[in-house]
Specification:
single chain; mainly beta; two-stranded antiparallel ribbon; globular
Length: about 110
């Protein structure tokens, strides 16, 4: 093991289960993992089976990037199985839902 790696400025880690959970909407939870000095941030989003975002999720001020970790995610148009990466450009939108439940890693490179 190289302990000098962990001593590098800005190098962080967090266990998803140790991250505080906040309910955004009934059955939809977010766990913040990291936030950078310019607003970029990473979260884990958990959606219970049968849940739907209550309105359009507009990607502002920048893009949204998501990786489907588990379950099947639907963006309002199609299903995405585990292992799928999605890039939604700034200004685009979708209406997230899931029939089965899903877990996403979500990254906002511009905040």
């Amino acid at each position: 093991m190289h302990p000098e790696i962990l001593m590098q400025e800005g190098y962080t880690s967090v266990a998803v289960d140790a991250s505080p959970v906040r309910e955004l909407f009934p059955g939809i939870r977010v766990r913040p993992l990291w936030r950078g000095p310019t607003g970029a941030h990473a979260n884990v989003l958990e959606m219970d089976a049968g849940t739907t975002w209550p309105h359009r999720d507009v990607h502002e001020p920048g893009p949204e990037e998501a990786y489907v970790v588990a379950g099947t995610f639907n963006d309002g148009a199609r299903d995405y199985p585990p292992g799928t990466f999605l890039h939604a450009p700034a200004g685009s939108w979708h209406v997230p839902s899931t029939a089965t439940g899903c877990t996403l890693f979500v990254f906002y490179p511009e905040g």
